[in-house]
Amino acid sequence: MSRAASEKSPNPFGCLPSASTIPANDLAVWTPVLDAPPDRTAPTDRQTPENPESTPGPQISPTAESLRCQELAEPGQMLKSLQWELNRIQRTVRQTLQSKLQGLVGQSLSSLNENRELASSIQKMLDTHSLRIRCPQCGHASILRVSPRKGMPGGAFVLDHTIDGKRTFHGGSSSVPPIQLTAKPERKATAAAKTQAQPAAAGTPETKVG
C-alpha cells in the first residue's frame, strides 16, 4: 500500500505516528514498553519482617479474659460458686436415692437376720453420701435398725437417734418404714477431744532424766 493510500484509509485506533514522521534519532526511544506482569514471589507488606504489625496475632476473647481476672481477683466468689455446685449435686443424689428407696417401703423379709442385713445395706448406702432418714415422728435425723421383738419373727424396724442427749428409738413396724432423707448432722466435739487436740504451751521447759 502506498503512503497516500495509508493516509487516506480510516484508522480505528486514531492517529498514530508513523516512522516517516518521527525523527531518526527518536526511533529507538519511542519503542513502546508493556507493563510487566506482577512478581508474585515478591514479599508483600504483610509478609515483610519490617512490618510486624501487619501479621495478625492470636486474639483473646475479652469475655474469657475478664472472667479470668474476676476469678483471680475474687477467690471468695469462686468458692461460693463451687459450694453452690456441690450443694446442687448432693441435692440431686439425695432425691434420686429417696426415689429409688421408695420401692422398699412396706417390704419385710422372713427372718430377723435378713431384715437386719437389709437395714444395714440401706444405711451403708446413706452413709456414703452423709445422709440419714428423717424420723416421721419427731423429725430428727435417724439410723434405720432392726430390733428383736416378741411376736415378730422378722424383728421390728426402728429409727435410732439422739434427742436432748438421750438415745431414743421410734417406730417399731414389721416392715421398712417411710423413707425421707435428710443431711447427716455434724457431730459435736466433746470436751475431752478438745483437750487432747490442744498443743502444749510454748516455752514449757523439758525435764531431763539423768
UniProtKB/TrEMBL annotation:
Residues 44-64 have a biased composition (Polar residues). Residues 29-64, 169-210 are annotated as: Disordered. It comes from the Bacteria. Residues 190-202 have a biased composition (Low complexity). This is Uncharacterized protein.
